[in-house]
């Protein structure tokens, strides 16, 4: 292995892995010469070392982005931007086995699920490629002596900070809308999962983007992430991650140059099951709602609320269902749940499980480590849970769910909303009126009715309350990446001669 590329062999793909910082369409070393290891969570062993960006490298990436923004990128038509994004989507599809293998290796997610992530990432890039030449302003009739119109202009250099739970999807959700409307990007991947973003950087060059338009760096949050959020020449920052760090990003933006900020943060989403729900469906969706991606989803349905008439039956059947989820090697085609991403996450989750036990909740299923190697945790279901318990209030970000009982609609809404988060919620009922009334009353950016976790790149996603600011995906995301300029053109004589 040299310092900038190495060959990696996984059970499903052998490929060339870039390791450098991708700045100006080239992979290069970090100025400090520092590197860091990325760990395979299935084996707890290092995979490779990648170059580690610090403030100086962020600065280099910003300069490259600025140069592109003021130079070559200005000459590219919106349609050609769209063509590059759709070409990138094609390349994602061509290399989907490689990208999915990287996700399984670096993040630990099941390969079958990683393939879906890559398909979503490619679809998202293609979707925004389609938008590139369809964003335009208005002409506004103000007075016969003037021509007044608006232009939807790019914001400029966008800093993007992404998490480790859906590395390649988050990369695409961020880059797609930013690039579609003519911005340039410095994106930092999460230190736990740098590999897929670097592979995708290679495809950026192949797709024909001019140098400096998309810069991809690996590095730590407190160094490279902080350098992005406080940089004086970054015009906008988009962050996905914990609410704790989201607050720091917002503060850094306020203290530096008041860059525009969008945040997609944590959640403690209620998944509400009424007596009249189709219980088989509700159990399947509740299981998928919390255990998909090992519970490492900001919108995970981590609080199941069940009406008293079916509570006991639901719990008995849900326990059986949760215990059936197959844990194991991500590359095994029957695996549903792989390891948690890191030792730190594993420890945090196990600590929450201990809290639940000590607070007096009942462990109905799981509650222990699975196996002896890798960061595997048994799917865990807590019953006898009260609203004031830590496990009912705080985001656990793992395969741990609480089940609570409610009497009626009003109580379901009240418990559902009694959290500082507001990312997502779900309602299971056959009664359309109940479904609509309750979904209207829930303070959440997404409400699923008789399903869970369905996210499409055509529809917006984001949080109420402390779950975030702004919306990703759909046409709404384009608003985060454009600023409106109003132009008044004088047609007739001066009004104030
Ligand atoms: P988690 O606790 O789940 O790892 P974080 O919110 O810490 O989630 O991380 C999400 C992203 O935010 C990662 O890319 C991480 O490097 C970055 N990050 C962490 N701390 C900071 C910070 N102080 N400033 C900017 N970015 C940060």
UniProtKB/TrEMBL annotation:
EC number from the UniProt entry = 1.2.1.3
The residues covered by the Aldehyde dehydrogenase domain are 29-487
Q: What InterPro entries does UniProt report for this protein, alphabetically? A: Ald_DH/histidinol_DH, Ald_DH_C, Ald_DH_CS_CYS, Ald_DH_CS_GLU, Ald_DH_N, Aldehyde_DH_dom
| Sorted UniProt keywords | Oxidoreductase
Instruction: Locate the active site.
Output: 264
| PANTHER family reported for this sequence | ALDEHYDE DEHYDROGENASE-RELATED
- The top EC class, named as a word, is oxidoreductase
Family, per entry: Belongs to the aldehyde dehydrogenase family.
Please give the biological process terms from Gene Ontology that the record holds: acetate biosynthetic process
Give any GO molecular function from the UniProt entry: aldehyde dehydrogenase (NAD+) activity
Q: Which reaction does it catalyse?
A: an aldehyde + NAD(+) + H2O = a carboxylate + NADH + 2 H(+)
- What's the protein called, per UniProt? Aldehyde dehydrogenase
């Amino acid at each position: 292995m040299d310092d900038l590329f190495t060959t990696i062999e996984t059970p499903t793909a052998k490929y060339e892995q870039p390791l450098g910082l991708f700045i100006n369409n080239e992979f290069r070393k970090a100025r400090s010469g520092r590197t860091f290891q990325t760990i395979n969570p299935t084996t707890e062993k290092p995979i490779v070392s990648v170059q580690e960006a610090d403030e100086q490298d962020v600065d280099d990436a910003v300069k490259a982005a600025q140069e592109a923004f003021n130079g070559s990128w200005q000459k590219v038509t919106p349609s050609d931007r769209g063509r590059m994004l759709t070409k990138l989507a094609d390349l994602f599809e061509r290399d989907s086995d490689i990208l999915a293998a990287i996700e399984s290796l670096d993040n630990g997610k099941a390969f079958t699920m990683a393939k879906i992530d890559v398909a979503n990432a490619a679809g998202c890039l293609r979707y925004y490629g389609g938008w590139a030449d369809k964003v335009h302003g208005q002409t506004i009739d103000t007075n016969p002596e003037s021509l007044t119109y608006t232009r939807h202009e790019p914001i400029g250099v966008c800093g993007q900070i992404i998490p480790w739970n859906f590395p390649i999807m988050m990369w695409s959700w961020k880059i797609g809308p930013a690039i579609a409307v003519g911005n340039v990007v410095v994106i930092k991947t999460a230190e736990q999962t740098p590999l897929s973003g670097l592979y995708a950087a290679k495809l950026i060059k192949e797709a024909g983007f001019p140098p400096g338009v998309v810069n991809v760096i690996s590095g730590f949050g407190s160094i490279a992430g902080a350098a992005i959020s406080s940089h004086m020449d970054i015009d906008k920052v988009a962050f996905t991650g914990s609410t704790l760090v989201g607050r720091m990003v917002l503060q850094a933006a306020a203290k530096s140059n008041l860059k525009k900020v969008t945040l997609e943060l944590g959640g403690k989403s209620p998944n509400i099951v009424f007596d009249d729900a189709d219980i088989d469906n509700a159990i399947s969706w509740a299981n998928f709602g919390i255990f998909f991606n090992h519970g490492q989803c900001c919108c995970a349905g981590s609080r199941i609320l069940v009406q008293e008439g079916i509570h006991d039956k639901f719990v008995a059947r849900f326990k059986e269902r949760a215990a059936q989820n197959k844990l194991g090697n991500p590359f095994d085609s029957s695996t549903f749940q792989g390891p948690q991403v890191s030792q730190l996450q594993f420890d945090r989750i196990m600590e929450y499980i201990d809290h639940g036990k000590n607070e007096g909740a009942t462990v109905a299923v799981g509650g222990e480590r699975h196996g002896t190697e890798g960061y595997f945790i048994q799917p865990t279901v807590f019953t006898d849970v009260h609203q004031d318990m830590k496990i009912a209030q705080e985001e656990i970000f793992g395969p741990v769910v609480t089940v609570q009982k409610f009497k009626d609609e009003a109580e379901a809404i009240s418990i559902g909303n009694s959290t500082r988060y507001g990312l997502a919620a779900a309602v299971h009922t056959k009664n359309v009126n109940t479904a609509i009334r309750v979904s209207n009353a829930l303070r959440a950016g997404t409400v699923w009715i008789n399903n869970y976790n369905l996210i499409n790149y055509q529809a917006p996603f984001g949080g109420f309350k402390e779950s975030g600011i702004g919306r990703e995906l759909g046409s709404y995301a384009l608003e985060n990446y454009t600023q409106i300029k109003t132009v008044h053109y004088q047609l007739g004589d001066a009004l104030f001669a």
